[in-house]
Every structure is written in structure tokens, then in C-alpha cells.
Specification:
heterodimer, A: eight-stranded mixed sheet, three-stranded antiparallel sheet, globular, B: nine-stranded mixed sheet, three-stranded mixed sheet
Chain lengths: 234, 211
């Protein structure tokens, strides 16, 4: 059986990177973020990236690291708050930003992975998001055509993986990871815990191994919390 | 006397029915969860991929893999399920959610709403708001009746870039509650806050409504 495991993120990225490439990255805020792979991508020095990701990280962490080094030329995201460096680059025109409603973004990535070139949605019809897009009425309601997204490279964070590359995610760290895993022919999973093949019940697999080309251990696994909110103990 | 944030949220909570699946936005809408009338049990959805949102964690329950759509730490409940972002928005877009409650900068008399671009400020993005308002069968907006400079936020037409076209079913402000029976009809005044007169309300509203 082909070995998909690599010892390090740098080794897994070897030979895959080129300037101007498109990279899709899983995660929501700082949750379920492929931290190790993002840092390896930064260290590779690859430039002029288009990054598809719901958020842009925060200053100094997540995709914020690639913004600091100005390796990102274009982003497709639904929300980019909490990031002063992004704000500066956006206002100065250094970075190109396409805002995409969160559900439309998830579906565009899903469609890309499923071989569907475009789909109609009500979301954004009659707003700035719908400008310049094909419109059509179904059942008297107004829809806009949104096109699929695919990537040269997809980076996801998994909780567990078996030797074949079947993945499990944990709680809300799942978020965009399952769809991002499907939108590229080169998906690398960063894994918190490797388990023997067969240890993940076949009925429970979140991402089947066909979507996963390479795997690396999550050697950086800080799991930073963006907004810590607690209640008093009863 | 205008309603407080707490009272606005409590008024919204009265609109929810037992068994509903509901998405609550950030700010005042978040308060609704703790103000439900007795016997009303709802399931909260968080669009980052969670159905069955629990309360905030105690300090020893904090789990970085468990956050809500506002990126706050949260807990799960018996019966919670986790889904991908695509599945989460399929629930929304597919019309499976009973209600979404969110804040806004403006609501217009034709049901348009605008809440994602604040003039003169960096645009942070719409997040899931456009999907939620265009996909959910009942959209309830909670907001102050007037902006800080006193200008009305309940308008004849929105002046800011839209989040959704003809999507608002109910509006609850610090001055009054309004409802539409359908998305072709006008907003109808349901209730005034204590000691707020109809004349005062009309003077603070640009929108036309019935009473």
C-alpha cells in the first residue's frame, strides 16, 4: 500500500509549491487550523499565493503569518476581522480580497470537489455579491450563479487518521476541513494522532482516504483560543 | 421608557416555539437563549458546524476544538451533532431552520436589511449573515431604533449595501416590536415599549408601518 505519511510538513510540501498557486486551507477562526502546514508554507518562501479560507487568521498566527511575510496576493474569504496587518494590506491595495458569503464559500468548495462547475443560490441576490453574476428565477424567486472553487493544494487539520488516510475531525474543528479536503488533487492532512488502519470504524469516517494524498504529524498543535468565554462553576 | 437590551432579547424569546431550530447572531441575540419562557425548548445552531449549542464552559471545561460562530468557547449537550460547514449551510439554505435572530444597521419597510458594511470602517466581511437571512423561514432583527446620531435605522429604503432583499419578518427595537404576516405585506406595530407613544415612534421612524 502506498505510504502517505511524511515525517515533516516540509517534506510533504517538497516539489508541490510554485509561485502564483492556489491553496485552500481548512479551519474556522483559529479552530481546526493546519498550524504546522501553514508554518511550513511560510518557511518555503512560496509567493503570490491565492488562498481560499473562511478567515485570514489573526496577527501573528494562522494565515496571519503568511500575511506578515506578504506571501498572499489574493484571498477568498467570508470574514477577515481580528487582523490589523490584513486591514493595512487591504486598505493599501497590496492584497486582493474576494468576499464570499460563508455558506456560498463552503458550497463552492464542495462543488469544486464534486465536479459541479456552478450552482444557483438565493444568497446574495440583489446585493453587491450578486453584481455581475448570472441571475435566474426559480419558482418566482431570484437566484444567482456561483462558480466552484478548486485548488492546486489543500491543507486540512485532522484529529485522527489511519494508515490509509481515512480522517476523523473533532467537534467544531471539523468546519471547512471536510470540503477543503475534496477540492484539490493534492490534499495534505495534518494529523494529531495516527491510529492503526481499521481503528476508525468504517461507519464513522469523516473524510474517506481517497481525498488524502499526504499526511504529516501535527508537530505544532497550539490550538489557540480566539475568545475565551467561561461561566462560574455551579 | 425604551426597552433595555435584556428586554429586547426577552421580547424576541417570546416569538420562539417549542421544538424550533434557531440560529442566534452575535450581541443582543445571544441573550435570547437564556430568556426562553418555561416549557419552550429550542435547539441552537451555530453555523461553523454545530447543532445543539450548550452554555459557556466552566474554566475546566474549556476545549479549543469547541467554539461557536462568534469564535467563543462553548459546550455541547446530550443530542448535539457536529457537521461540516457545507452541511451546516445546507440546513440553512435548504429552509430547515425555523428562525434566525440577528442584529442589523438598517431595516427597510420592504423587508430589506443591511448589516455588513459600516460607512467609513474597514469591511470585515459578511460571514454567514447573507446565507442565514436568505435561507431561513423567519428572520427576526433586533436593533436600536435609532443610530447614535439620532437618525432612524428603520427606513423607507436601506441606504447601506444590502445583506438581503426582502428577508425580514420581524423587527424588535428598544422602542417597539413590528411583524409582517407575509413578505408582501407591510410591517405592523405589535407592541410599544412602556411610555413610548405612537407619535414618538413615528417621529423616530422613516419607514411606513401599520398599527
Amino acid at each position: 500500500m502506498a505510504n502517505k505519511r511524511y515525517d515533516s510538513a516540509a517534506a510533504a510540501l517538497e516539489g508541490l509549491l510554485f509561485d502564483g498557486m492556489t491553496v485552500a486551507v481548512g479551519g474556522f477562526g483559529l479552530c481546526g487550523l493546519p498550524e504546522t502546514l501553514i508554518i511550513a508554507l511560510r518557511d518555503s518562501g512560496v509567493r503570490n499565493l491565492t488562498v481560499i479560507s473562511n478567515n485570514a487568521g489573526v496577527d501573528g498566527w494562522g494565515l496571519g503569518l503568511l500575511l506578515q511575510t506578504r506571501q498572499i496576493a489574493r484571498m477568498v474569504s467570508s470574514y477577515v476581522g481580528e487582523n490589523k496587518e490584513f486591514e493595512r494590506q487591504h486598505l493599501s491595495g497590496e492584497i486582493n480580497l474576494e468576499f464570499c458569503p460563508q455558506g456560498t464559500l463552503a458550497e463552492r468548495i464542495r462543488a469544486g470537489g464534486a465536479g459541479i462547475p456552478a450552482f444557483y443560490t438565493r444568497t446574495g441576490a440583489g446585493t453587491l455579491v450578486g453584481e455581475g453574476k448570472e441571475e435566474r428565477y426559480f419558482g418566482g424567486e431570484r437566484f444567482i450563479l456561483e462558480t466552484a472553487l478548486t485548488a492546486d493544494l489543500a491543507l486540512v487539520k485532522a484529529w485522527r487518521a489511519d494508515g490509509k488516510g481515512n480522517l476523523l475531525y473533532r467537534k467544531t474543528a471539523r468546519n471547512f476541513n471536510p470540503v477543503v479536503a475534496t477540492c484539490s488533487r493534492m490534499t495534505i492532512a495534518e494529523v494529531e494522532e495516527f491510529v492503526p488502519t481499521g481503528a476508525i470504524p468504517a461507519d464513522s469516517v469523516h473524510t474517506p482516504s481517497i481525498y488524502v494524498r499526504r499526511m504529516v504529524p501535527a508537530s505544532i498543535n497550539e490550538k489557540r483560543v480566539e475568545k475565551l468565554v467561561t461561566r462560574a462553576k455551579e | 421608557m425604551p426597552w433595555t437590551r435584556h428586554q429586547i432579547a426577552a421580547r424576541a424569546a417570546q416569538e420562539l416555539q417549542d421544538g424550533w431550530y434557531v440560529n442566534l447572531g452575535i450581541g443582543i441575540p445571544t441573550l435570547v437563549a437564556s430568556l426562553l419562557p418555561d416549557g419552550i425548548d429550542i435547539t441552537l445552531q451555530s453555523e461553523n458546524g454545530m447543532l445543539g449549542l450548550g452554555p459557556y464552559p466552566t474554566p475546566d471545561q474549556v476545549d479549543p476544538d469547541l467554539i461557536n460562530a462568534g469564535k467563543e468557547t462553548i459546550t455541547e449537550l446530550p443530542g448535539t451533532s457536529y457537521v461540516s460547514s457545507a452541511e451546516s449551510f445546507a440546513m440553512v439554505r435548504g429552509g430547515h431552520m425555523d428562525a434566525t435572530i440577528l442584529g442589523s444597521l438598517e431595516v427597510a419597510e420592504n423587508g430589506d436589511m443591511a448589516n455588513w458594511i459600516i460607512p467609513g470602517k474597514m469591511v470585515k466581511g459578511m460571514g454567514g449573515a447573507m446565507d442565514l437571512v436568505s435561507g431561513t423561514r423567519r428572520v427576526i432583527v433586533l436593533m436600536d431604533h435609532c443610530a447614535r446620531d439620532g437618525s432612524p435605522k428603520f427606513r423607507s429604503r436601506c441606504s447601506l449595501p444590502l445583506t438581503g432583499l426582502n428577508v425580514v419578518d420581524m423587527l424588535i427595537t428598544d422602542l417597539a416590536a413590528f411583524k409582517r404576516t407575509n413578505r408582501q405585506g407591510p410591517f405592523h406595530l405589535m407592541q410599544l415599549a412602556p411610555d413610548v407613544s405612537l407619535d414618538y415612534l413615528r417621529s423616530k421612524s422613516e419607514a411606513h408601518f401599520t398599527w
